[in-house]
Please model this.
Amino acid sequence: MPLETQSVLLKMRWSNGKVTKKRDELIWVGHLRPTDFSPEYTVQLRYRLWGRPRVAVLDPQLDPGHRSRLPHVYSEDDLCLYTSGDWNSTMPLATTIVPWTAEWLFHYEAWRATDVWSGGGDAYAPKEPPAEPAHESGVAR
Amino acid sequence: MASTDLISQLLDGTVEQLDVPEHLLALADRIYDDIGLYLSDNLPGGRDWTFYSQGSGRLGTGVRPVGVEEWDIDAVAEADVAKEEIGKKELKDTVGEALGGYVLARADDEKLAPAGIEPGRRCWTLRYHGPFHVDVLPAVPNPEGAPSGIWITDRDLVRWQPSNPKGYAEWFERQMAREFLERRTELAKAAKVSIEDIPAWQVKTTLQRAVQVLKLHRNSFFAADPHSGPPSCVVTTLAALAYRGEPALADALFAAAADMPRFIDKDGEIWVVENPAQPGDNLADRWSSRPGALERFRPWLDDLQSTLDAARNTTTGMQAVVDMLSSRFDRSLVTKSMQNYAARQTSIRDAGGLIVTGAGALTTSGKGVPVRPHTFHGD
Model:
């Protein structure tokens, strides 16, 4: 799916966000508030065509509380939102990565309260993120 | 309702952990039937006996003390004899002897055998091998009172006192009748059985949960001086009088905290909360004569209201809601409740029912983008 299409879908579904496009990279900055009791999180999604979408939370700063590290992140600015096979470049970021981010934020808050990750899977991300999706051979979409 | 939903669910999940487990409630039902039959078959003079549950077990509003894994079940052993024909001590002794016989008769029964029997001041306590005991209150019928009215003795076995636990339970059930029927019907549908096949104790209504939360909050607020707190019969009665049918637990609690004082009558210095099933019985009698107790009643309710308010107005995340509620309710219970709540959202997601609104809020109905299947962690 070309970046232009991804961009259009993001703007349509997430009207409180902004998309900027640089040559071969799309950057979406949006605002997600998973519950009525949550702050409004500013999140940034970076995606290069054929690459792996990377999501960071810009504000408020994520805080592991009394634990030493955050759950389900590859690094502080790279949330672990899915596992191999859940996502590929034919899927709209707007209907996959963005809702998964809202869900991640919900479970992050629950984890802060309970020390248990209730979103499925184990508490911490594997060391390696899933391999960058293989380049689709044939016609570009 | 949306803004109170998390709080309602957290509080519901908190007190749920203090419920008598279902297998014990089912066992208790069998015990009542069994003891009733035994008493009728074995008491001198061919008298009829009835044996039935009373108290918070009957009402479904019990909260066991946090950290104590033992449940307190209350029952009445009612002999069909006029109070003029039996002495107060004689009544107590007759019941005690009969229950003693029951303990021996059932000694080999795997499920129903009590471990022993102990006397109280006017009651008998049947101990069991499991984590519960049954307090049995001896009684005789009160033909001048309401249809199910009884006479019981006072703790010194000196005076007869009128009581009506059956009538009280029926009154309480009327305050929540509509929701009780709705929930029982839902359970029956889900289990594909008829309504009568769902035991009453399986149904939990908002009013029952509200009473449980009020009692738990009371235990915490008056922890340093438990006798100053309003007794459970006062809390239960006032909450039921104040209840206006609010479906959401948090709304019911806000309304209860605001309205419960309206249902207390004043008779000079004495506060009166008349037992709705027993005219003349002031449930607030002993409590209202304790020095300082009445002055703390309003602050208790204000504290509940301000705790719920603070929780409701939090905007720094669900962890802050848990923190606020944990300031008044046991943290391990609230935390476990949060865990269960979050796990339910994941189940809903796995079943394809989780949606994210345009503002990024998780919901299970209305407009938004469905959360597609995924796993946060790889293999």
Notes: Residues 38 and 109 of chain A are 8 Å apart (CA to CA). Chain A touches chain B through 53 residues (CB under 8 Å). The mean pLDDT of chain A is 88.
